[in-house]
């Protein structure tokens, strides 16, 4: 399929200038270049502006409850691990409500690609502070300023044992596309955090803010070095973009004897035809 063929035909209703447009285009470009057909992809979405992604992609999809993308993605992957499973959710969805699921999905190392659109705010509900909002920042839910420390999602995933950690920026589409491609190719759980300006409710973290701080990681960087990854993740003055950490570790599906060689679908345990399942 060409990138344009991944358009579902529905017109996105994100605000003009929203970083989600670039993420949408990067996903379509990555899938096209990897030559994966829409019929072999399931896109799981959380709740939030990022969650609308599944409406605009010609793939299978599942719109979950808030923070519950990982249980659904896990179920789908364990049922038919031949599918490419993509997850799109926001920082509130993944690092807030879904944090418990996120950590345990990382431990399992299922072959899932998780795109966390980090805009530092709850955009869909018009601008409340999220787990990644900086301390002191005033928002609708924190009129006197945030009093909690912000969460560093990449630090959490490195500590939890992630095998692929990357950071992209919606203001650098080609680079983001290459990161998404690498995440999908990686055999294991890929955590890709995408810096995504919310131009309507997250004005403190706009394109100008990022353009002054982001830089691409050098080509000779070794992503297999834990200590170096930790340094990049904890860096405060500048923001590194690229593949920060990547190691090999067996996936959960490779270690489960029940599905290692044949999916539950191929074994006939789970029926392809949902109507047949409902009748049985
Ligand atoms: Fe994008 Fe923010 Fe508008 Fe949501 S509210 S569509 S995140 S700009």
Which features does this protein show?
single chain; alpha/beta; binds iron/sulfur cluster; Rossmann fold; 10 strands
3D shape: globular
Q: SS-based structural class? A: alpha/beta
Radius of gyration: 18 Å
Helix content: 25-40%
Q: In oligomeric terms, what are we looking at? A: single chain
Q: What composes the largest sheet?
A: 8 strands, mixed
Second rung of CATH, namely the architecture: 3-Layer(aba) Sandwich
Give, in spatial order, the strands making up the sheet with the most strands.
2-1-3-4-8-7-10-9
CATH superfamily: Thiamin diphosphate (ThDP)-binding fold, Pyr/PP domains
Q: What is the domain total for the residues?
A: 1
The fraction of residues in strands falls at 15-25%
Outline:
The protein is α/β, with parallel strands linked by helices and 280 residues long. It has helices at residues 20-33, 69-79, 91-97, 99-108, 153-160, 173-185, 207-211, 226-234, 252-255, 274-279; strands at 41-45, 60-63, 84-90, 112-118, 121-122, 128-129, 164-169, 190-195, 214-216, 239-246. Strand 7, helix 6 (173-185) and strand 8 (190-195) form a beta-alpha-beta unit.
């Amino acid at each position: 399929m060409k990138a344009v063929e991944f358009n579902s035909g529905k017109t996105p209703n994100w605000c003009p200038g929203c970083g989600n447009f670039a993420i949408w285009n990067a996903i379509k470009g990555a899938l096209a270049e990897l030559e994966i057909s829409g019929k072999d992809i399931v896109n799981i979405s959380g709740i939030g502006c990022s969650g609308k992604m599944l409406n605009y992609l010609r793939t299978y999809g599942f719109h979950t409850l808030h923070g519950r993308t990982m249980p659904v993605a896990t179920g789908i992957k364990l049922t038919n691990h031949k599918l490419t499973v993509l997850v799109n959710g926001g920082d509130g969805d993944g690092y807030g409500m879904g944090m418990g699921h996120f950590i345990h999905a990382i431990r399992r190392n299922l072959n899932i690609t998780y795109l966390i659109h980090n805009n530092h705010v709850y955009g869909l509900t018009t601008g409340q502070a999220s787990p990644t909002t900086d301390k002191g920042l005033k928002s609708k839910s924190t009129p006197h300023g945030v009093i909690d420390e912000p969460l560093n999602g990449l630090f959490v995933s490195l500590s939890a044992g992630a095998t692929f950690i990357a950071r992209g920026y919606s203001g650098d589409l080609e680079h983001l596309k290459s990161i998404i491609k690498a995440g999908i190719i990686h055999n294991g759980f890929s955590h890709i955090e995408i810096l995504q300006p919310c131009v309507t409710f997250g004005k403190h973290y706009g394109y100008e803010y990022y353009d002054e701080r982001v830089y691409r990681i050098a080509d000779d960087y070794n992503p297999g070095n834990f200590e170096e990854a930790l340094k990049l993740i904890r860096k405060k003055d500048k923001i590194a973009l690229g593949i920060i950490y990547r190691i090999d570790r067996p996936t959960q599906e490779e270690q489960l004897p029940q599905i290692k060689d044949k999916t539950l679908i191929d074994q006939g345990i789970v029926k392809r035809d949902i109507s047949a399942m409902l009748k049985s």
